[in-house]
Design brief:
This is Orn/DAP/Arg decarboxylase 2 N-terminal domain-containing protein. InterPro entries: Ala_racemase/Decarboxylase_C, De-COase2_N, De-COase2_pyr-phos_BS, PLP-binding_barrel. Its cofactor is pyridoxal 5'-phosphate. With 167 residues, the chain is an alpha/beta fold. The chain folds into two domains: 33 residues, no CATH class; 122 residues, Alanine racemase (TIM Barrel). It contains six helices and ten strands; from the N terminus they run E-E-E-E-H-H-E-H-E-H-H-E-H-E-E-E. The strands form three sheets. A four-stranded antiparallel sheet has the order 1-2-3-4. The chain has a four-stranded parallel sheet with strand order 7-6-5-10. The longest helix has 20 residues.
């Protein structure tokens, strides 16, 4: 393989050097493995942020063209850490969570519940439903396995929900 940037799905900051060694965001993976051990998750923050902004901008422009706003969600089920949730929030995305644990991660990251966390789960308990509705400012969503995937939403009486999209 020739030296240079690698194609998708690699981050835009992933490069294979002339000696075949890979680096991500300017960090040599051999050095990272020596310091941190393997296996390791390696995230390119600049690439994540760039893609988040691109998704948000594309959806905002598309919905603005039809006279509407839109909320764009990062799908926490892809990978949810405190850092990732914070990056998503800082780039203007909301964070979609599917459990009380994921909701706790987003809240710890400083993602404000009323404006940024949407919770969906297949088997909510009464306490987890109350917790997610309280954290999200009165809006939560559950999916019941008994109802073949139908979705029910609990929303505040005031205000009409904006369209949303998970990226």
């Amino acid at each position: 393989m020739t030296a240079g940037a690698l194609p998708e799905p690699w981050s835009r900051g992933t490069v294979r050097g002339a000696d075949g060694a890979m680096s991500v965001g300017g960090v040599d993976l051999r050095e990272l493995a020596a310091e941190q051990g393997t296996p390791s998750y390696v995230l390119d923050e600049a690439d994540f942020r760039s893609r988040a902004r691109a998704y948000r901008t594309a959806f905002e422009q598309a919905f603005a063209a039809v006279g509407s706003g839109v909320d764009v969600y990062y799908a926490g089920k892809a990978l949810l850490t405190v850092a990732v949730a914070r990056w998503a929030r800082e780039e203007g995305l909301r964070v979609d969570t599917a459990s009380g644990g994921e909701l706790a991660v987003t809240l710890r990251a400083g993602v404000p519940g009323p404006s940024s966390a949407c919770t969906a789960t297949t088997s909510p308990t009464p306490s987890s439903s109350r917790r997610s509705t309280r954290a999200s400012g009165g809006s939560s969503s559950t999916r019941s396995s008994r109802s073949s995937g139908s979705r029910t939403s609990s929303r505040r009486a005031a205000g009409t929900p904006r369209p949303s999209w998970s990226a």
